[in-house]
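Regression test case RT-17, inverse folding.

Input:
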């Protein structure tokens, strides 16, 4: 049986990747939302797990310490057991320094790590441009949510454009409001949902046929289907 471990950055990435895997392959993963872990077993053919680089709630994102901890696990245990390790992490921008961000610097950094550890990786959003999960999500807003998201986008831009003396402290600390725009969109579009439903992404909010997802889909297919 093949064993594949997918590592993602945080809760948002975790839920989105599970949603994409289930849509692409028809898998139904068992989810432990508290530990941010999920798994799927296809009889004796494949065991697939999805987890974050850290299981500490509220400690999403990526840094060299988290990556090194996973690399140690791969080298000390997983590679010896034949486990296939896959990283799905943000390309980020040049402003990110630990590890270095921006598609070129992040790619170079990951290739250096691969010299001593056996793993595969994909840099979100497309493995070719700077960005993150929010870059994907803002590009796959469902048709009936586009006008509403534009309103949210314009509102966020108006907050960012305020004079420094008028700008709220939160906006000063989060000058792009990328995560907030997506969070507002999900919260307002969904309305009240059951606790069980909140453990999964609402599929009606996203267009998984968007072109921006094609590179990630091709990568995941090459991993899961071993093509």
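Golden output:
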């Amino acid at each position: 049986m093949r064993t594949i471990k997918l590592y993602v950055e945080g809760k948002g990435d975790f839920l989105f990747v599970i949603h994409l895997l289930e849509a692409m392959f028809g898998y139904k993963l068992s989810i432990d939302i508290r530990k941010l872990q999920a798994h799927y077993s296809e009889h004796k053919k494949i065991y697939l797990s999805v987890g974050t680089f850290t299981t500490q709630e509220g400690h999403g994102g990526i840094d060299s310490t988290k990556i090194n901890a996973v690399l140690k696990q791969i080298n000390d245990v997983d590679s010896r057991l034949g486990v296939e390790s896959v990283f799905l992490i943000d390309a980020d921008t040049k402003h990110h320094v630990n590890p270095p961000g921006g598609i070129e610097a992040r790619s170079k950094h990951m290739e250096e790590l691969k010299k001593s550890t056996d793993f595969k990786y994909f840099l979100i959003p497309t493995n070719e441009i700077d960005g993150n999960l929010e870059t994907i999500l803002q590009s796959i807003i469902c048709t009936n949510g586009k006008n509403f998201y534009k309103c949210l986008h314009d509102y966020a831009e108006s907050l960012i454009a305020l004079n420094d003396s008028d700008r709220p402290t939160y906006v000063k600390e989060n000058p792009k409001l990328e995560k907030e725009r997506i969070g507002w969109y999900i919260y307002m579009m969904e309305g009240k949902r059951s606790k069980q439903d909140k453990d999964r992404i609402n599929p009606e909010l996203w267009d998984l046929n968007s072109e921006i997802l094609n590179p990630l889909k091709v990568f995941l297919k090459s991993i899961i289907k071993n093509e």
